């Protein structure tokens, strides 16, 4: 069976360096909020081109802490509306809910699957105070338009960059540096994945950085002195050390993903299948095709030895957890949820395997 994603193989490339990092970590006796986190934060800020980076427990917390920090800073208040695309992973919406802001779901664009600029504009109301574009599947949202409209309506812009490490716009500006603040996830399957949970906030906003750095540590940076109602959400030293080992390889890994994507784009010739739009920003966290007979196609691939995934099978507004959103009608998003299928893609996938997958798809 061709696996959807071989996380073990991705990480075995770094086994020797991980072992050395583990030894040095044990010797240091510093397990939380130490030098290794500080070093990774500096490296990741440099990579994204931002002034600041803050390592946190996971991507969901990164989003939640940004929103919470803006509440502390008085730039948002409970009940304010945050626009977010409807076909995102549920975490983007949970973050908004967790700090008592109101998620307003925006339809995705039918070509890029990222936020529809026209629907975004049409849903801005008196209570709208922020927009949360998600760089879904590794492709940048149209940040030029998002930022222009946000400026016109005085909205905060928060990138959900959980799937887009290293993607950059036509000016070379990278995800994480295209808004007021951005959230990253280092969940093991991500383009930059830790060996457990992890996340980061990147920003050029010193005030946001300062407040969020307190919020991730119970509400204060000085031991036993607390200024805010914080949480415990720090990126572990050992995960920071592992991420520092992997970061220098991220862009080469993204290039390998792009080469596989190009092979899929050139090789898949099946009138039942719609291929993704290939713009230069795409770092192909997922290679997502569309097919009206998606479930049959998935079964066909499985029977022929190819494991696939669906990002995501149930739209957030149809989830029981988000009952108040169940009444929404979002036809574009709903159609996409019924049709999308993610093919195997990773920096350790061979061209031979990719060709094999193409041949099977072309027989469907
Ligand atoms: C778009 C998006 N946002 C947020 C998250 C949440 O990240 P984490 O799993 O690290 O909490 C994810 C993770 O899968 C994601 O894909």
Return the average pLDDT rounded to an integer.
Answer: 98
Spell out the helices and strands N to C.
HHHEHEHEHEHEEEHHHEEHHEH
Ligands in the model, by name, code or SMILES, are: pyridoxal-5'-phosphate
Helix content: 25-40%
Q: What's the CATH superfamily of the largest domain, by name? A: Type I PLP-dependent aspartate aminotransferase-like (Major domain)
Rg result: 20 Å
Taken together, the total number of domains comes to 2
Based on secondary structure, the structural category is alpha/beta
Q: What can be said about the biggest beta sheet? A: 7 strands, mixed
Alpha-carbon distance between the two ends: 18 Å
pLDDT < 50 runs, ≥5 residues: none
Number of distinct helices: 13
The best one-word shape is: globular
Under the CATH scheme, the architecture of the largest domain is: 3-Layer(aba) Sandwich
Could you tell me the number of beta strands?
Answer: 10
User: What is the CATH fold-level name of the largest domain?
Assistant: Aspartate Aminotransferase, domain 2
Query: Widest sheet: strand order?
Result: 1-7-6-5-4-2-3
What is the level 1 CATH name of the largest domain?
Alpha Beta
